[in-house]
Design brief:
Elements: H1 3-7, H2 16-39, H3 49-145, H4 150-154, E1 156-157, E2 163-175, E3 190-194, E4 222-232, E5 238-239
Antiparallel strand pairs: 1-5, 2-3, 2-4
Helix pairs in contact: 2-3
Length: about 260
């Protein structure tokens, strides 16, 4: 009986991975058998005749079992090598078949769908050319009449000037505070720190730690509303790309659909 049929009697397809798993299992069993065999004669010096005979029988059984395991491993390794080779060849054949199918599909797409798409492009390109022609006529008339053209009216996002948003917010103000090294006005005698609001109550959270004045005295802060300026930068006008740059070549042969000659 074939070893694979004996180990996998109900399997319809036996893969190299399944064989490798069985090899690993058999190798672990063999290692455990060798370990047991190494301990069979532990205490031989104090064994009785009967115990010695039992140890000899057990060692013989373990050796025979180990030989069978080694034979199984050797046979499985040979089957695993053959399975890997067969799977590699099958994968190569499948890849070649898939590639041939892809080539055939590409040829069909070029020959049938490609032509249909080009004819559809021809129809739509002519419609677009008519639209562009009419837009150019409208823009020419607008220029003569000195009014905004289509691009200026519909295809331009106007500029946005920079703005300053002013609001009041609670600040903790320290009087007679020493000037900061980077202050623009060295003579400043107070420091205002914007208060952090409690996310639940919405009330200002008192500052942690002490703030010291010019002469080392602790300064209690006063809560005051101060003006805060938030600057929003401006934005330049944004013009959509010019339609005069559009180029529509013919689908098959002939003159350009747009610009029209």
């Amino acid at each position: 009986m074939n070893i694979l049929s004996a180990i996998f009697p109900k399997a319809k397809k036996i893969t190299s991975e399944a064989i490798a798993t069985e090899i690993t299992r058999a190798e672990a069993d063999l290692a455990a058998t060798h370990d047991k065999l190494a301990r069979v004669f532990d205490g031989l010096a104090v064994m009785s005749e009967e115990q010695h005979a039992e140890a000899e029988d057990k060692a013989t059984t373990l050796r025979r079992y180990g030989e069978r395991l080694q034979a199984r491993i050797d046979a499985l390794r040979a089957e695993h090598e053959a399975a890997v080779a067969a799977e590699t060849e099958a994968a190569k054949v499948a890849a070649e078949v898939a590639h041939r199918k892809r080539i055939e599909a590409a040829r069909n797409a070029v020959g049938i769908e490609g032509e249909e798409l080009l004819r559809a492009y021809d129809r739509h390109a002519n419609e677009i050319a008519s639209i562009l022609t009419r837009i150019a006529e409208i823009n020419a008339e607008a220029r003569d009449c000195r009014v905004s053209n289509v691009d200026q009216t519909h295809r331009t996002t106007p500029a946005q000037p920079a703005t300053d948003h002013r609001m009041t917010a609670p600040h903790y103000v320290y009087r007679d505070a020493p000037p900061q090294p980077d202050e623009a006005h060295p003579g400043q005698t107070e420091t205002a720190v914007r208060a952090t609001l409690d996310p639940i109550t919405g009330k200002p959270i008192p500052p942690a730690g002490a703030h010291y004045g010019r002469f080392g005295q602790v300064i209690p802060p006063a809560l005051e509303m101060r003006e805060v300026v938030h600057h929003v930068g401006g934005r330049r006008a944004v013009h959509a790309p010019s339609l005069s740059d559009v180029r529509l070549p013919p689908a098959f042969d002939g003159e350009y659909i747009w610009p029209r000659s």
